[in-house]
Amino acid sequence: MQHLIYGISRALAWLGAAVLIVLAVLSVVSISGRALSQWGLGPVPGDFELVEAGTAFAVFCFLPWTHLTRSHAVVDLFWGLYPPLMKKLLIVVSDAVMLLLWVLLTWRLAAGMQDYRATQELTFILQFPVWWGYAACLLPGVFGCLVYLWRLLEDVGLARPPLRFTAPQGGH
Fold this sequence. Notes:
Structural class: mainly alpha
Distance between the termini: 23 Å
Shape: elongated
Number of strands: 0
Helix content: 55-70%
Oligomer: single chain
């Protein structure tokens, strides 16, 4: 199970990176088109709408992998001063809070998607349903719930990470 969770998380992170690369190219093309409007070029229609939805999707793809590999930004000014038991307790509590927040975020994302689907609101320029962006984010969001739970199970010793992701002693 751990290889599946880590493998899908890594693949999602790569998918998020690919989406961000496409969005960067799209932005360059659109900005260049604006700058070269005197030669008949123009911006990519709906570039802001695509960047907005695509960036949200990429973030939802990155966060499960980030959490599994403990790659979040950390301020550990006093971490080295804490005894091992306190470190373990802080890791378990923070991962439990992260799981609860991720479940709450995913639940509200699903509720927002249902609301936008019911109202059939469309984006201004491209006229695609707003709920599509929510639905795209919901897939990695639901998987993220499993990932955050798995990370908590690893913390309390009920699951094990693949060997290459085992933290060295004293690490966090």
